[in-house]
Write a structure and sequence with these properties.
Length: 110
């Protein structure tokens, strides 16, 4: 009926080092619900379930379409400027933004 993913992008090391001591950077994404099961709160339950799997000290980021911001905002995600993105996430954001006609935004779990 639905699916989603939480991807571990590694430690935050924006200075170019491989600092294993940095906070883990996770990307929440791929939330999809079958057409026949939409408008039943399934996407929200998927997001909540995936967030339950994230370590408490992880940075959780998401690249939703702008029209889906209310779903992610309800779970604590806030829009961030691209400059705030961890190095591992920036190319993913740019690729996603250029691959879709719908506007993609960068969000981070507050």
């Amino acid at each position: 009926v639905g699916l989603g993913r939480l991807i571990d992008l590694g430690p935050r090391a924006d200075d170019g080092s491989d600092d294993e001591g940095g906070a883990r950077v996770l990307e929440l994404g791929g939330i999809w619900v079958a057409e026949s099961a939409r408008r039943q709160g399934i996407a929200g339950r998927l997001v909540a379930g995936l967030l339950d799997l994230a370590p408490p000290d992880a940075e959780v980021w998401c690249l939703p379409f702008e029209d889906l911001l209310p779903l992610y905002a309800a779970h604590g995600f806030l829009v961030e400027p691209v400059e705030a993105a961890p190095a591992a996430l920036e190319p993913r954001y740019r690729g996603c933004a250029s691959a879709h006609e719908r506007r993609v935004v960068l969000t981070r779990l507050a």
